[in-house]
Write a structure and sequence with these properties.
Elements (H helix, E strand, L loop, with lengths): L13 H11 L3 H13 L3 H5 L16 E4 L11 E4 L2 H9 L21 H15 L7 H13 L4 H8 L4 H5 L6 H9 L6 E2 L2 E2 L8 E3 L4 E3 L3
Length: 219
């Protein structure tokens, strides 16, 4: 449930992630499911509809990349492959799929795949256990994309991971934190007025000063 977030899912902190995965989720399946969402920045429906062979080989070893098939992606625009980092690999190693084919996260009685609504319920119950509010299944995707952006990864590369059709759509996902806004505004101090003296004017290389006038190079 999203609370006072203007319709946007909460971006999780490192402590909240640790809390959810250590105390909130109650099974290796649930940790693997939401680990896929967090460490590949995928949509919940994409995680729910994964085939076992998209994640494990026939010997049940975790692949180096997770394959998101075109027909399972939003808009069915294009398939994509996302590398498996060690944090995700450890979750997938602990989770033992019931078969080497079919859906990775089966539905009730082994039929079909787990429903995204069922995944939402699992997450709500986990959040209640650890007293977290404002978290939805979309929080994992927003958290991953925001973390990559804050780490300085170019948006075009993040787009390859997220599968967004354009950069404008991707930018809507990224969280701007209050401390980032404060830091940005603090940068304006160079333009400020301190006491009775103005900030010293800066001269650039293409500006030459004379005793009475300043002329700017036309080069």
């Amino acid at each position: 449930m999203k609370i006072n977030r203007h319709g946007k899912a909460k971006v999780l902190t490192q402590d909240e992630i640790q809390l959810l995965f250590s105390e909130g989720f109650q099974s290796d399946r649930d940790r693997a499911l939401f680990g896929v969402c967090l460490y590949t920045a995928c949509r919940i429906n994409e995680a729910c509809t994964l085939n076992t062979l998209d994640v494990y080989n026939k010997k049940k070893y975790v692949r180096n990349e997770i394959i998101f098939r075109r027909h399972n992606t939003k808009g069915k625009l294009a398939a994509r492959a996302v590398p498996v980092i060690e944090e995700l690999r450890s979750l997938l190693v602990k989770y033992q799929p019931t078969s080497s084919d079919g859906f990775l996260f089966p539905g009730r009685h082994g039929k079909g795949h787990i429903n995204p609504e069922s995944a939402s319920r699992i997450l709500r119950e986990a959040c209640e256990k650890v007293d977290l509010e404002g978290v939805s299944t979309h929080s994992f995707r927003r958290t991953a994309l925001t973390e990559m952006s804050n780490a300085g990864i170019p948006l075009r590369i993040i787009q390859e991971v997220s599968g967004h059709r354009n950069l404008e759509e991707l930018q809507k996902y990224l969280e701007v934190r209050p401390e980032q806004v404060k830091g940005a505004v603090s940068a304006l101090s160079m333009l400020g007025y301190a006491g009775d003296s103005h900030v010293r004017k800066s001269y650039f290389l293409d500006v030459t000063s004379n005793s009475d006038t300043e002329t700017i190079s036309s080069d």
